[in-house]
Structures are given as structure tokens and as C-alpha cells.
Amino acid sequence: MRTPEALLALIDDGVIDEVLRPLKSGKEAAVYVVRSGDEVRCAKVYKDMAQRSFQKRVQYQEGRRGRGSRETRAMGKATNFGRKQAEAAWKTAEVDALYQLREAGVRVPQPHGFFHGVLVMELVTDAAGFSAPRLGEVELEPDQARAYHATLMRDVVRMLCCGWIHGDLSAYNVLVGPEGPVVIDFPQIVSAAGNNNARSMLLRDVNNLTAALGRFAPELLDTWYGEEMWALFEAGALLPDTPLSGQWTPDESEVDLDGVRQAINDAREEAIIRQQGREAAEAEH
Hints:
The chain is α+β, with helices and mostly antiparallel strands. It is built from eight helices and nine strands.
């Protein structure tokens, strides 16, 4: 295996000692298993804008701020400096989110720093010490599916209370460790208050998870956690430990209930398509 240039810089700086193997390659980044002292970690090497295939970046970046007022203003303009600032913000979004969400109690990998455009973080493993499978790759008993759903709904609430929505959450952005699900992949994280698409993205995230876990516990498909969360958030009444019922009474004169059901079915199909795409991409590497 040829060691990526970005990881050679980390070896030269003593951040990591060895690159062990590739872990996965996706639309935004390639992830490698690395050794740092006595610990095995993973290193996420972000692709440059020209190399990334992720679409609709502007939609996700709406509402994000730069590290200063000049940078924030520049990000809203099509200047070279503004594009560079937007690219830098895209690459640092995940590490900033991981530190904040970890502090808030969300189950995410422990970050170990951001160096030369590379995020070094915890390698999530299973009980045997191998790389943890994704939620979409495991079979669950009904009680286990319900427990995982409750954990993930609470993590989504904690993210929302931090002002964030994952934006691309599905059964393939959740790893299953010995203590349950761990949420990963945050470069596209969405501002809950500053993005006009925040509500629809939250509902999509929740519906994706509900559809995946509803395969094992079908009663989950009759819950409305996303709508309940958003209603509480808009009212300023959502706290990290706010009890949720999964019940919500829509205004049937305004809400397309058939459309909501269709959204759940679409989420199921989207999860299957994404998995097929990931498997095809991994096969190429």
C-alpha cells in the first residue's frame, strides 16, 4: 500500500507512527487505520473540492460561519479567498463538531486532533477488536433495535440542542460498538437555526434511522420523533433530556400524511442505494 502524502506529513511530525491499512474510501474522504504509540486509531484524509463527488455543498453550508467576521463575509462571496475559506470550513467542520458533540454526551468517536488537513480519531471496534460494522450491516433482535433507536433519537436531540443537525444520517453513518451505536461522518453538519432546509434534513435523518431499525421492530415506523423534536426546538422547549413520546398530532389540513409515509419508504430505498454505491466504491479500491 502506498502511504498518502498527507499521512507521511503526520509520520514526519510524530503524530502517528505507522499506517496499517486502508479502512474505507468515500465521496468526501479516505480513512486509514494507523498506529500512534501503543494505540490503534484512524486517520481521515479529506479530499480537495475538485476530487469530491458530494453534491449540493452550498445547501449544507448555509448558516455556517467562518472563524472571524472577515472570513464569514468572504464565504458568502465567489472570490478566491471566499472559496478557500469555505473549503477550510468544510474540512474543519467535522473535528469541531466531534469535540462539541462529545462534550454534549453524543456517542461519536473521540477526536485526537486535526493535522495538515487530516482528522485523527478513535477507531471504533467491535467486541473482538475488529473494525465495528455499520448499523445497516447487522441483524438485530426487536428489543435491540428498539434500544438502538432510543439511543440514536437521544443523540439526535443532543445534537439539535447544540444547534446542529447531522444532515446525512443513515444506517451507514452509524457504527455498532460493544456499547451500542456510534454516529460518524460529520463534514456536512447543518446549522439548525441558520439553514433554511434544517427541518427537512432533521426529518430525513430521523426517518432514515427509523426505517432501518423498523425492519426489526415494525412499530417504530408509526412514530413521529423528528416532528416532535422540531416542534419542541422551534418552541424553545427542547433540552438534552426532554422526554419524547414519538407521538405528534399533525394538522391534517396542511400536512400530507401520505407524503410522510412515502418519505419513510423513500428513506428505505435510499439506504439500499447508498449501500450499493458504497460497496461498489470499496470494490474499486
